[in-house]
Amino acid sequence: MSATTPLRRALAALATLALLLLAGCGYGSRAADRGTAQAVGRAPLTDGLDCVRIGYFANVTHATALVAHRKGFLQEELGGTRARYAVFNAGPSEIEALNAGSIDIGWIGPSPAINGYAKSGGTSLRIIGGSASGGVRLVVDPKKIRTLADVEGRRIATPQLGNTQDVAFLHWATAQGWSIDPMTGKGDVTVVRSDNKVTPNAFRAGTVDGAWVPEPTASKLVAEGGKVLLDEASLWPGGRFTTTHIIVSQTFLKKHPKAVEAVLRASVATNRWIKAHPEQAKAAANEQIARDAGKALPAEVLDPAWASLEVTDDPLAATLAAQADHAVRAGLLQRPDLRGIYDLTLLNKVLTAEGGSPVDDAGLGVRR
């Protein structure tokens, strides 16, 4: 045996330990986190946890998470338990992280939650609260498309095969009488699955004629000369539909309900603060976007994006059921059994404690 073998083994063990610490609840090394770490060290732990790992997107449609992070609402409610954040670009990767135990709670869109729940046979997650309604629009090149009928024969971008906006566009297009293969995107309209980061470039280059996208991508396209042809809110009763909600690992919910309740208290408090201080909240969200994505949104993008969105504690469960039905009709999903996808017990506890009204799970709640 080589004399260096024990040393190599020791170094390998240290490297493995470092990776485990990074995946766990360490405090990290960013200077901006030092004050938080000191405050955390002086407060009692919530549910005995060193940290709660929270996922979200650096998108305007995740306004609750952005503001709660930036203004410290989540950390305040968790006390001595560190709020540790992970920023995602796509729903499937966030679901994978939740399933792998890399995060405990996340803000996410409806389609990834539906798919994750269905694929796990109803064992992976629960939806525990609402976050946002609206913020999705069809933006087109006005030189090529002037009316809704003009969409036929054009190339329209959606963010990802089977994602929330992809399902919505396919459902709408089918309602117009157009035929589109849901997997290839080919048909009377060509659906181009394009990451939201590159869609504005494709629109500028003319390789797509429009896009059915969430904010802030929709407003970025408008800034590039696009025109809003349709706001998805106009297709829903009362103009409200779930865009973003809060999910939790079922294992984490069962083991740590006090921590989950703390996150929900923070979410409710954040939404209340956003409604009371819309301009300050918009600025806070943009500051967090700049931190997470490396660049703040310009006013011509941020302002209309923010105005198109409504923060809400209500997960609008009936609209989730409708969105699942849309995915089935579009041929993207076999009919899922969504019974038990919601557990709004802790949310309703928080709401009623503050004098509010409980919200409904549309018959899709867990039965005890």
TrEMBL record:
Listed InterPro entries: ABC_SsuA_sub-bd, NrtA/CpmA_ABC-bd_dom
Localization per record: Cell inner membrane; Periplasm
GO molecular function, one term: ATPase-coupled transmembrane transporter activity
UniProt keywords, alphabetically: Cell inner membrane, Cell membrane, Membrane, Signal, Transport
SUPFAM superfamilies: Periplasmic binding protein-like II (SSF53850)
Chief location of this protein within or outside the cell: membrane
GO cellular component terms, A-Z: periplasmic space; plasma membrane
Annotated PANTHER family: ALIPHATIC SULFONATES-BINDING PROTEIN-RELATED, TAURINE-BINDING PERIPLASMIC PROTEIN
UniProt record similarity statement: Belongs to the bacterial solute-binding protein SsuA/TauA family.
Name this protein carries in UniProt: Aliphatic sulfonate ABC transporter substrate-binding protein
Taxonomic lineage from the root: Bacteria, Bacillati, Actinomycetota, Actinomycetes, Kitasatosporales
